[in-house]
Amino acid sequence: MGKPDPLLAAAIHELGKQKRLAEAALAQLKDDELHIRLNAQQNSIAVIMRHLAGNMLSRWTDFLTTDGEKPGRNREGEFADTRIPRAELMRQWEAGWKRLLNAMNALTDADLLKTVTIRNEPHTVMLAIVRQISHYGGHIGQILLLAKHITLARGRTWTYLTIAPGGSEQYNKRMGMT
Q: What's the CATH number of domain 6-174, 1.20.1070.10, 1.20.120.450, 1.20.1600.10, 3.90.1720.10?
């Protein structure tokens, strides 16, 4: 067996990076802060996490053989402002990510040009992967922004997850770029 397709390997790498960034942001929050809504139209971090988990479980269960929108999924329920303990929220989060990463790691190069459906719309496997990376990335960005806002609003210091403002030169030196 040869090396995996470079695009598939890159997709798996980036998904793992998104998960780690979100979890580093979550680690800066207290349990009750996961349920804060900035306004009536804004989802809490917990709601976004439940939505991502539900989407991952639906899309990546029997990924190559069934439509990505499973009949048993309760998408609207994912957006209900239900308070659940952090441990249960993390269990759901991990279950979604595990399903996603297991499905991605099981793909072969030959699978990438196969056709799958999402809500009865055909996609190549590669397009379906790109679609999901885009979807998840948008929501991970929401989690990061909300976590930072909540942390700073509560008077705590935010630990930057990437290069902190004003830190580019120091980072570039550390990476041997200057």
A: 1.20.120.450
